[in-house]
Amino acid sequence: MDGTLAEYHGWQGTTHIGPPIPKMVARVREWLAAGKLVKVFTARVGPQPDDVDVLAIREAIQKWCLEHIGQVLPVTATKDFGMVQLWDDRCVQVVPNTGEEAARGGTD
Known about the structure:
The chain has helices at 22-33, 54-68; strands at residues 40-41, 75-76.
């Protein structure tokens, strides 16, 4: 979410979500229009210290999605076997079964 779907300019609290990134929002809308399941994948709803209200975080993300994408998206911190792609600002793609970075000349 942060830095990929919504602008991120440093931590501003658990329920603060930055303005939408237009190119990514358009991409998500295209996927949804094509009938694809799109989920928000974020560590914000993963295991947290006891004093963090994950429900409030999830609700803030869902509200943001409704406002900027037009519908509530599932929010998760867990990958699953049905996942086809992961778009993120911190990912490094690895060529399957090689340990090589895809950006360094590997192939899928």
